[in-house]
């Protein structure tokens, strides 16, 4: 009888442990399309990880109601190259930091929309050939 209770206890603890351990896919964004939904130009900056001085302070301007494509970046780590992921988008006084809403796995060509009061994480861009 004690063997049965032991087996049930082991199964209970194993299921509890496996339920508490979730494998979370990376939520990285490697490239993006930033849509300026404002009626005036806006200056933006992208912060990358791993951080590198060549990617810091990459200010660019997006004209009113226009889009800007942010291409994927790689950092030379000596014997290998690392894919840089976007960790922060700053446009004017607005900022959006990772993890981004809607990103539940690695993404390329992810849409971000800059509105007058916020930056919104969107979806995978379907019009990437236009950039």
Which SSEs are present, and which pair or pack?
Elements lengths: L1 H19 L11 E5 L5 E8 L10 E3 L4 E4 L3 E3 L4 E3 L1 E7 L2 E4 L12 E5 L4 E6 L7
Parallel strand pairs: 1-9
Antiparallel strand pairs: 1-4, 2-3, 2-7, 5-6, 7-8, 9-10
Structure write-up:
This protein is mostly beta strands and 131 residues long. It has one domain. The chain is 15% helix and 37% strand. The chain contains one helix and ten strands, in the order H-E-E-E-E-E-E-E-E-E-E. The chain has one helix at 2-20, and strands at residues 32-36, 42-49, 60-62, 67-70, 74-76, 81-83, 85-91, 94-97, 110-114, 119-124. A four-stranded mixed beta sheet has the order 4-1-9-10, with no helix packed on it. Strands 3-2-7-8 form a four-stranded antiparallel beta sheet, with no helix packed on it. A two-stranded antiparallel ribbon has the order 5-6. A hairpin with a 4-residue loop joins strand 5 and strand 6 (81-83). The protein is globular and about 70 Å long. The N and C termini lie far apart (70 Å). The mean pLDDT is 82.
Short description:
A 4-stranded mixed beta sheet has the order 4-1-9-10, with no helix packed on it. A 4-stranded antiparallel beta sheet has the order 3-2-7-8, with no helix packed on it. Strands 5-6 form a two-stranded antiparallel ribbon. The protein has 131 residues and is mainly beta.
Give start-end ranges of low-pLDDT stretches: none
Q: Which geometry do the CA atoms define?
A: globular
Number of helices: 1
Q: How far from one another are the termini?
A: 70 Å
Over all CA atoms, what is the radius of gyration? 21 Å
- Whole-number total of structural domains: 1
Beta-sheet strand percentage? Answer: 35-45%
């Amino acid at each position: 009888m004690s063997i049965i209770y032991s087996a049930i206890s082991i199964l209970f603890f194993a299921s509890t442990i496996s339920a508490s351990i979730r494998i979370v896919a990376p939520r990285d964004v490697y490239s993006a399309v930033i849509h300026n939904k404002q009626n005036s130009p806006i200056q933006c900056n992208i912060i990358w990880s791993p951080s590198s001085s060549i990617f810091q302070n990459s200010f660019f301007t997006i004209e009113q109601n226009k889009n800007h494509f942010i291409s994927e970046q790689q950092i030379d780590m000596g014997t290998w190259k690392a894919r840089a992921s976007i960790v922060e988008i700053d446009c004017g006084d607005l900022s959006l930091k990772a993890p981004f809403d809607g990103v539940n796995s690695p993404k390329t060509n992810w849409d971000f929309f800059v509105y007058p009061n916020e930056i919104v994480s969107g979806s995978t861009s379907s019009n990437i050939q236009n950039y």
